[in-house]
Amino acid sequence: MLAGESPGDGPGDPQGADKTFDFVLSLGDARDVRIDARGVFVRSQLARGAHGYFGWTAPGVVARLMRAMLVANITGPTVGIVPSVAPYRTTKIPRQLAWLLPTRGGLEARLRPVPAALDPFEPRPIPDEGPLALPAPVELAPFTANVALVEHGRDVACPHCRVVARRHRDARDGWMVCAACGRSFRPGSISD
Predict the structure, then answer these.
(1) Is 38:143 a contact under the CB 8 Å cutoff?
(2) How far is CA 137 from CA 34, 117, 181, in A?
(3) Quick check: 32 and 97 in contact, CB under 8 A?
(4) Are strands 176-177 and 184-185 parallel, antiparallel or unpaired?
């Protein structure tokens, strides 16, 4: 995953990794992200908590992040700039600083706004001091390793792809997410 290889987008929504990458980049000013086989977990001050996304999007999200930063592979802690992008939505997301920290099973990233006075630079090892030093983590509840699921007790068809399941991911904001297509829906939109 840290060599920038993406095996594809996985099941369901062919834009799933683009959509998740967009959420990773757009959830507030300060975000901490953990990406591994279990999923993509974003902790942000704007969202006031942690949000999890399906594990099948993880390799694609890492590949898109590395491609945006012009990083071929991650061999150690690295800092760089993610340019202004619009991977999924039509609204451009402003450029941001990204600190990439390889972990045993994936990658942790800290994303922050780029200070106006900071000149563009090539990705490099994270220095101990200065504006490119590793920022403190976002102070919120700890990352959640498990994606919360809603058990329906009956078969429920996704209103988008019509795949039937007895459980869906709980997006913790009144929405559920289909594991087959990655799209969200409100429980009230379920038709029997």
Answers:
(1) no
(2) 12, 23, 32
(3) no
(4) antiparallel
Q: Going residue by residue through the chain (192 aa), what tens digit of pLDDT does each one get?
A: 555 555 554 444 456 788 888 888 876 678 899 999 888 988 876 666 677 888 888 898 899 899 989 999 899 999 999 888 765 655 677 888 999 999 998 999 999 988 888 888 899 999 999 989 999 888 755 555 456 777 877 888 888 888 888 877 777 666 788 777 777 787 665 544
Tokens of 153: 């007790």
Can you give the C-alpha Rg of the chain in angstroms? Answer: 17
CATH code 2.40.30.10 for 16-115? no
Q: Check: CB of residue 101 under 8 Å from CB of residue 108.
A: yes
Q: Indicate the domain borders of the chain.
A: 16-115, 149-189
**Per-residue tokens: 85:** 């992008």
Distance CA 85, CA 73 (A): 20
Reported pTM: 0.68
